């Protein structure tokens, strides 16, 4: 016999009393910590890989031989270091300016947030029978037909609850299912969607502005060419760039992502730190088998290193993305010739091995590119 069902009322959303969120660290606000933490992470990560470079540890995992750095790069480590310091001074200064006058984040207790989410879920549940009716399906009959198989499914279809089981409702009239979904939404689903949206914003902004810096010759010559003075990149040189690139490509992308995704200061700490580690990983010059970024997608150290090579800058130009391979794959700018890339790497290694850094401190780009392509005779 089918259970008797009645329509569930929409419980009013409880009024949450907001209060200032206590900072993670008692001596610094969360707003300031969210601004400074990525720089701290950058310094620690960069120092770690610098120690690997200095003491020649894990040499078997390097993309380029260590001596190539002196022979191929167009900038010294000291010049690079000064530009990186400028980058972080700009990042922190702009962050503090944008957050000037902002107090601590106002939050309600978790129970209240769950009740709010449960109220929203209840409202959405009540739309289901309306949607079914629009499609010509009788929600009441379908709910009764499925009640013997699954009471929960019958409730979802009918937007109802069984009146004989009032003990399943909390003091605000929500079912256990609604409260479980609300907890999942508050603690997992909503933050995950915020992080995903922030990633989409940053990845999209950086892909198209980065590509513009290569397509527009003036932008490349005046702004972006500075970053490409590093053919053999290293970790702490990851953000070595012209100050205009620092401002409009990097800092602006994260300001937009934070505003659009409505990231809290603590979410910004995690997102900014993750992005910093990813940037360091892309430029570190090492390919470790346990690199977690390689497990997520193909956008890792080799992916970005190809972009820094002479053949990655020629003609079509490749690998503009920073965090995913979505836009490169979609728009045909991902380097797909793995075997060809390795052959070019080997030709450049052979050529570089014959050079003397003191006699020839910088590589001739046309010659290097021609040798990588296997056509040195074309170079005048």
Task: Summarize the model shown.
The chain has 380 residues and is an all-alpha fold.
Give an account of the 3D structure.
- The chain is built from 15 helices and 4 strands.
- It is mainly alpha-helical.
- Strands 1-4 form a two-stranded antiparallel ribbon. A two-stranded antiparallel ribbon has the order 2-3.
- The N and C termini lie far apart (about 90 Å).
- Residues about 1-15, about 160-165, about 360-365, about 365-375 and about 375-380 have low confidence and may be disordered.
Task: Please render the helix and strand layout as text.
Blueprint: E1 6-7, E2 19-20, H1 30-54, H2 68-72, H3 77-98, E3 106-107, H4 110-134, H5 139-147, H6 151-158, E4 160-161, H7 176-215, H8 217-222, H9 243-261, H10 265-283, H11 292-296, H12 301-308, H13 326-331, H14 338-353, H15 365-373
Antiparallel strand pairs: 1-4, 2-3
Helix pairs in contact: 1-3, 1-10, 3-9, 4-7, 5-6, 7-9, 14-15
List keywords for this structure.
380 residues, mainly alpha, two-stranded antiparallel ribbon, 15 helices, 4 strands, elongated, disordered N terminus, disordered C terminus
Strand order of the largest sheet: 1-4
Number of helices: 15
Helix content: 55-70%
- Indicate the structural class: mainly alpha
Number of strands: 4
Q: What is the string of SSEs from the N terminus onward?
A: EEHHHEHHHEHHHHHHHHH
- Compute the CA-based radius of gyration: 28 Å
Percentage of residues in DSSP E strands: under 5%
Q: What value does the average pLDDT take? A: 81
Q: Give the termini distance in whole angstroms.
A: 91 Å
Shape summary: elongated
| Major β-sheet profile | 2 strands, antiparallel
- Low-confidence parts, pLDDT < 50 over ≥5 residues? 1-13, 162-167, 358-365, 367-374, 376-380
């Amino acid at each position: 016999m089918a259970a008797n069902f009645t329509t569930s009322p929409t419980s009013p959303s409880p009024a949450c009393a907001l209060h200032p969120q206590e900072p993670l660290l008692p001596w610094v606000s969360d707003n300031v910590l969210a601004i400074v933490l990525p720089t701290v992470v950058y310094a620690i990560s960069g120092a770690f890989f610098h120690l690997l470079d200095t003491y020649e540890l894990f040499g078997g995992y390097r993309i380029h031989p260590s001596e190539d750095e002196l022979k191929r790069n167009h900038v010294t480590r000291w010049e690079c270091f000064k530009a990186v310091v400028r980058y972080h001074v700009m990042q922190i200064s702009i962050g503090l300016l944008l957050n000037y006058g902002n107090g601590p984040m106002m939050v309600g207790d978790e129970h209240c947030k769950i009740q709010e989410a449960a109220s929203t879920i209840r409202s959405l549940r009540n739309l289901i029978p309306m949607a079914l009716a629009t499609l010509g399906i009788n929600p009441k009959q379908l709910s009764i037909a499925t009640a013997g198989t699954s009471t929960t499914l019958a409730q979802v279809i009918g937007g109802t609850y069984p009146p004989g089981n009032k003990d399943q409702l909390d003091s605000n009239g929500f079912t256990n299912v609604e409260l479980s979904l609300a907890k999942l939404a508050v603690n997992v689903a909503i933050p995950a969607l915020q992080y995903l949206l922030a990633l989409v914003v940053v990845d999209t902004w950086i892909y198209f502005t980065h590509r513009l810096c290569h397509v527009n010759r003036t932008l490349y010559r005046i702004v972006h060419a500075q970053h490409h003075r590093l053919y053999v990149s290293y970790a702490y040189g990851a953000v070595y760039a012209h100050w205009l690139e620092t401002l409009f490509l990097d800092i602006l992308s994260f300001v937009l992502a934070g505003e659009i995704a409505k990231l809290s200061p603590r979410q910004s700490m995690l997102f900014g730190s993750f992005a910093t580690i990813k940037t360091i990983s892309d430029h570190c010059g090492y390919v470790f088998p346990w690199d977690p970024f390689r497990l997520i997608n193909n956008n890792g150290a080799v992916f970005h290193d190809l972009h820094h090579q002479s053949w990655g800058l020629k003609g079509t130009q490749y690998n503009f993305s920073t965090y995913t391979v979505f836009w490169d794959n979609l728009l045909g700018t991902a380097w797909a010739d793995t075997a060809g890339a390795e052959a070019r790497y080997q030709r450049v290694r052979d050529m570089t091995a014959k050079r003397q850094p003191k006699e020839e401190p910088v590589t001739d780009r046309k010659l290097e590119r021609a040798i990588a392509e296997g056509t040195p005779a074309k170079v005048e």
